[in-house]
Amino acid sequence: MRIxxxxxxxxxxxxxxxxxLHTLLERAARRASLPLxxxxxxxxTPKIQLASALPLGFSSRAEVMDIWLTSDIExxxxxxxxxxTLPHDIQILNVEKxxxxxxxxxxxxxxxxxxADIPDEYASNLTSRLAALSEAKSxxxxxxxxxxxxxxxxESLEAAPADGSxxxxxxxxxxxxxxxxxxxxxxxxxxxxxxxSVRVERTRLIFRG
Length: 209
Prior knowledge:
This protein has 209 residues and is α+β, with helices and mostly antiparallel strands. Helix content is 23%, strand content 37%. The chain has 2 domains: 2-102, Pseudouridine synthase I, catalytic domain, N-terminal subdomain (Alpha-Beta Plaits), CATH 3.30.70; 108-207, Alpha-Beta Plaits.
């Protein structure tokens, strides 16, 4: 039995890295007494698969993971039991059964959407800067000492009022394919906005089909 779980990651857990998050989820599943399926080999581990690593410091309301179980369990019961073992900053949003033979989550992910609330001191002329970035044929950036092309990784950029306030919110849709993943902090830097000054949240993961 394969279960797909969508969950949010907020608060202090924004600063929990990908591997530590995986460990946290694994321990929570064990404490919930889920009938976990394990991998083969000398060091079997629970079959838990996260769709995409979330950059450190980002919050999310759209994280997705698959868990394999050795026996059927009522989805609503699983949600209650697992939520009871998770910290408050992780909230389960949806639980559903999926085909055991479906491709791995990572191979089906094609894009991700983000929201970034822009501080007032960087919001002036944002529309024109967005237009210039969107119209640019090339945006060269350096990551880990290597130069790469950011422009093909940007699918859409849009400025909109933040909910219930006069602040400006930047909406980003970036590619999230293997070997071609756009990073919001790189987009912010290209817009001359210090990434450390902005709260970024992942709002959606987009899969094939």
